[in-house]
Target: Cytochrome c oxidase subunit I
Amino acid sequence: MDNSGLLFQLATKGILVALLAFLIVWSSKDRNKYRKLVWVTLFLTFDVIMFGAFTRLTDSGLGCPDWPGCYGHSNPLQAMEHIRAAEAAMPDGPVTVMKAWIEMIHRYLAMGIGVLIIAIVVISWRFWLRSGRTQSQFSPRFPVALFLFVCLQGAFGAWTVTMKLQPIIVTIHLLLGMTLLAMLTWVAARQSDHPVVDRTALRLRVPACIALILLAMQIALGGWVSTNYAALACMDFPLCHGTLVPQMDFQHGFTLWRSLGKTADGDYLPFEALTAIHWTHRVFAFVVAVWIAWVAWRALRIQGLQRIGRALLGALVLQITIGIATVSLKWPLALAVAHNGCAALLVLLTVMLNYKVRIPGRLDEN
Model:
């Protein structure tokens, strides 16, 4: 199939995914359909992040080793001959029927998000122009930024496949997905009603921003653990190989530009390098947890932030519990996916907190 026909068929599948979301928005009792569309897109993005984690953790990232289609076709059914041949040659390899479907479903869902974001851009422009460019909540700046960002995310999705799961590319792909979720959360917050927030919330602006930065760094470390398959490099907890500071190879572990499982020189990555990756993620998690817990505790003491503070604290406790259980239970798939999902939830809640602590200042300015 030629590229234009393939892209058309893939776009059709993305539109079908988006149509389901549009149906939810249209049938909603919420009178503000634009706000509902933003929230539904946010929810779908959260789901795609979790499904992306499932794709990565089931080693399905190369289930279809080309892009954007699957052996030049728009779905695995049409490529079954090629998939069966690859599976017969390597039964435990990256290409199987199940892995091909997982990979392509992930692509269909991602395309659906792209269609929804295009709809958000069009509607925001329409509402903004109709309001005489006076209603800032409909400003197209954020939606246009979302569109540009989802295009960038799609490019890294393609490079993830064409560059054969190179760890730095896969990690950036994960970070861009989390950033897209954060941006959608900010847009959704602009469309939503918020309780009155006490002016003391202004004191949390800097701490909340630091919490988001630390969380982003920890997610990057977590992505580096996952993309290097270092989740089981330390099989015990709280120690690692029975000691507080095990033997580690930071030089090879944190060389960013290299192939999967290899050093920059092309040799196999030593186990000490995987230990260094895992240990760093684990230790930095303590720093992030303490800071976010402190920020959430302060939010609990401020009028209008109690609810978000409780949610953030609860998500943090859940994430720590899942992280420990993932190691203790030897990395069960469901818990590993949930660990990624809870990280996305922390991003959502931390971004929402950052928005809320700016409400008093915005109200005074208007």
Remarks:
- Residues 199-366 form one domain.
- The radius of gyration is 22 Å.
- The CA atoms of residues 62 and 164 lie 7 Å apart.
